[in-house]
Amino acid sequence: MFEANIAAQIARERQAHNITVLGLFETRWTQSGQVRLNTGGMILYSGHDEENAHHTEGEALMLSHEAHNALINGEAAGPRIIYASFKTKKENIKLNIIQCYAPTKDKDEETKEDLYNKLQTMCDKLKENDMTIIMGDLNAKIGSDNSGYEEVMGRQGLGKLWRDVG
Known about the structure:
Order of helices and strands: HEEEEHEEEHE
CATH superfamily: Endonuclease/exonuclease/phosphatase
Distance between the termini: 44 Å
CATH topology: Deoxyribonuclease I, Chain A
InterPro entries: Endo/exonu/phosph_ase_sf, Swc5/CFDP1/2
Shape: globular
Largest sheet: 4 strands, antiparallel
Number of domains: 1
CATH class: Alpha Beta
CATH architecture: 4-Layer Sandwich
Strand content: 25-35%
Helix content: 10-25%
Radius of gyration: 17 Å
């Protein structure tokens, strides 16, 4: 989303497909904040904190007008995690959405450990009876046999599925 007009194009697609909350990663925006859209929606984003940081990584949640109106709060947790909490029609129950992007195998283990610690800390803050969705790309490698899971799993995994081992 670092290029001009990409956010507007994604917003049009989000609206055309009637998606209320769209998770985005590799946005390449720095800092964290929010941007109002002409549609009445909003983008919550999180990137590197440093002012002169490289335009790499970055998470965002693109909200419809309805989701924007239901938004209670949002929290950036670095360039790989962003969180938002929404009112629901059920009294005393919130909808929490955590968008994250795990490092690939190429990244050092400390970076991965840091991400999972931040994710756990964020989940620990949430009430047990609230609804929580964790979405994004966790870069899980679970095998190449996607039989029965074609709609949610590609064939790019390495090794064997856990059910095929032992």
